Amino acid sequence: MPDGTRGTQFGTGRGTSPVTTAKAEAAVRHPVPRLTVGVEEEFLLLDPATGCVVPAAEDVRRRVDGRVANGLVPELTQFQLETNSTVHTDLGWLQRELLEMRGAVAVAATEVGARLAACGTALHGNAGMPPLSVGPRYHAMLKEFGAVLRGQGVCGCHVHVGIDDREEAVLVSNHARPWLPVLQALTGNSPISDSVDTGYASWRAMMMGRWPSARPPPYFRSVRHYESLVDGMRASGVILDRGMIYWLIRLSDHVPTLEFRTADSCATVAETTMLAGLVRGLAATALRDVRAGVPAPRIDDTLLNAAWWRAARDGVEGEGLDLLSGGRMPAWDLVGRLVEHVRPGLEESGDWPVVARVLGRLRRRGSGAARQRAVYARRAHLPDVADLLVRQTLASPADTP
């Protein structure tokens, strides 16, 4: 899509959300801040011959060295790995690092007979209790939550944006939460689980939904309110520690960031980079509104959860819930609204050309979920899907999505 093309390509020519006087004034009086961004990506280890998961994470980690090793951490199961990028202000440098990390881990995976795949759910071989990673925390989770762990081992893409003031950060969450279903729809990349098409673009979202806290976050009155809810969850046993705060937007406890957790593991580096740009633009736009005193919309939790479910169900190829009218509309029209909302921030940060280009390709070629389904529909052969996932994971951004 040409850089000068406006949101009409995404359906914003009609049904556009109204711009309030307060927002218009905020845009004039308060520039959109430029925020830092970092990304956590979770991956599966697959057997290319069968599409089955391979519990070889520790072997892979031991074979990775240098700076990539510093950002490579274990996950819940022995067939998952997570990479953590460094902090960036430029999407181009973030994209280069993501590709470097994927490449290094993929080489190590090949050395142990596995392949690295960016996908939200295992294609095959994870129907029961997964092989947990070594460590007391994971086994404490098994003891407390039992069968909730069956079939777990799902993979997401988490974007961190730098916001030093925690009070501002929770207010940014309030402004950003209505857009979580749109981000979910865009990044659906887990239609297949246990060898069948689930009917969902993001089966990962449904699997994560087994955890009591894995939902869009509530509307927070303050940091004190946020912490009181966390304390209540810990007292009830819903979470064992702060790492189990699975809200789709949460405060980070180890770095001064706000973490967006709604996306599936993105099939390509290009799509991850697009997501990082959209999230940064959304957070920056929200922070501008917070500083201008613009109140966040009070979306009912039930309606927001319904929109999140619909996004996981249909993805971007189907319909989404319009939180303004309560009716359904094409998901790409909702993407258009998001683009219109955050475009000033994208242009201010220089992210617009990257985001626009990938969105255009995504609309033409289909989402990660649609691409998996297209391959699987040819002959219902899981290794074909595994091959697609492996190729996409290492694809050059110039050739994707």
From TrEMBL:
It comes from the Bacteria. It catalyses: L-cysteine + L-glutamate + ATP = gamma-L-glutamyl-L-cysteine + ADP + phosphate + H(+). Residues 1-25 are annotated as: Disordered. One of its GO terms (molecular function) is glutamate-cysteine ligase activity. Gene3D superfamilies: 3.30.590.20. Its EC number is 6.3.2.2. InterPro entries: GCL_type2/YbdK_subfam, GCS2, Gln_synth/guanido_kin_cat_dom, YbdK. Keywords: ATP-binding, Ligase, Nucleotide-binding. Residues 1-11 have a biased composition (Low complexity). GO terms for biological process: modified amino acid biosynthetic process. It holds the Pfam family GCS2. It is an enzyme of class 6 (ligase). Belongs to the glutamate--cysteine ligase type 2 family. YbdK subfamily. ATP-dependent carboxylate-amine ligase which exhibits weak glutamate--cysteine ligase activity. This is Putative glutamate--cysteine ligase 2. The lineage of its organism: Bacteria, Bacillati, Actinomycetota, Actinomycetes, Streptosporangiales.
